[in-house]
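Possible regression after last week's pipeline update?

I re-ran a chain I had predicted before the update to compare outputs. Posting the input and the new output here so someone can diff against the archived version. Not blocking, just want to make sure nothing changed silently.
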Amino acid sequence: MTPGSAAPPSRYHEILVRVAPLCPAGRPPPRATGGRVCRRYHAWIYTKLALASLELGDPGAADPGGAPPPPEVAGLPLIGHEEIAVHWLSYAEYLSSFYGGEEALLELRRRVAGSISRGLRGILRLRPRAPQRLRIWWSPESPELEDLPWEILFLGERRPPCLSLVRGDPGRVVPPLPLRPEQPLRVAVVDPTGGAPAALADALEDLGPGIEVAWIEEDDARKALSAAIRAGFEVLHVVADGAAPLGLEGLLEFSGDEEDTLSPLELSAMLRGSNVTILSLTPPEIPRVGHGGMPTVHHAFARFCHDSDGCPTIAAQLGPMHPRVSREFWRAFYQRLAAALDVEDAMMSASQRPLMTPVVLFLRHRFGRQFTRQGDEARRSPAWPTSGAGQTPAGDVPLTPAQVTADLSCSRDLLDAARTLEARYASLGFEFPGKALIERESQRQAGLDEALDQSLTEET
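New output (post-update):
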């Protein structure tokens, strides 16, 4: 695994796997295979890494079955095409396997591994060399694929400390939250029904001077969340069950009352403008059992996180864990988060033991840490390339990482829209008049990417 010539030096090399239905206009037609139903999906590979040894499929030779994939996403070029073929014995059977004990999970892992093509298996087996890190973005467009625990393909065994598999899309950029120099990271635990696993309570005791944990004493979920938000907590750890009415939307459920639920849209509205930067989700000690005797929390959490684009970065435990594993995971997770201020560091540190029940990271922060210490920003702020960005003065000026990520958050979307327009012009046989502007803006954003990565990589 080596970086391509165009790849800037960065703390993270990135690979985006964008999964789309074979027939985007509708649900892929099922194909019977020995009593099973097979659905096929495109897997478009975007990266600046040179992955010739994996012999990925040629994206130009694949029939997209509709609109072609974008040639570039968030600065990552399209370099390969693979396929996923999911053999559904029945949808419920896949999900119920998730709760059938370790033997059932091993069988589910075998099935999931058999559903992806050789090139994708090669990507998941990449082993970066320290200190360089590799982040793999897993981005399904089809909601039914969110329900499958893809993470067990590498969380189920001891994995290298420099590999991060996250869900989401790298296009969104959220700035880091500044903390005072001596301020501990503050975690609010919201457990309105009192159903938190005893292992979680044990894990959150005496975590050290760098982190404070407070249990919100309130039996109304909305009031508890509002209290934590008003108090300015940086991390929310919510203990909730899950509901997925009609299988379309994931809801957080806090009691058996159907009205006592919280949608992604509602939570996003509550968190907008707050200090909450990381949201952790844990099911209760005894999760609710749905149709057919199957707990619903995995299905609901996956859908909830998929639809919660306006929420912060989410670490979601997708099902009940063995108490010892749960205690060790969450304790290691929060201790490392307090030290590194980086949720991916925390996940890597906490996931060194095999995890058959995955904790899935839905990442909203593409660059560096989720937090910075006040006083570090001036030390870390180089002269950012602002020429041509509409800022004043036109020359290089010292900006903070938060200001630069805000710039990228807006300008990245505009650049992607311009590239889409350029492709449309080309399909009609016309020359796009703004080619030079696209090239200059691409170079400017690449410079911002590189400088921002470097500014946020110092250890705390």
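Follow-up from reviewer: compared with the archived run. Residues 401-427 form the longest helix (27 residues). Marking as no regression found.
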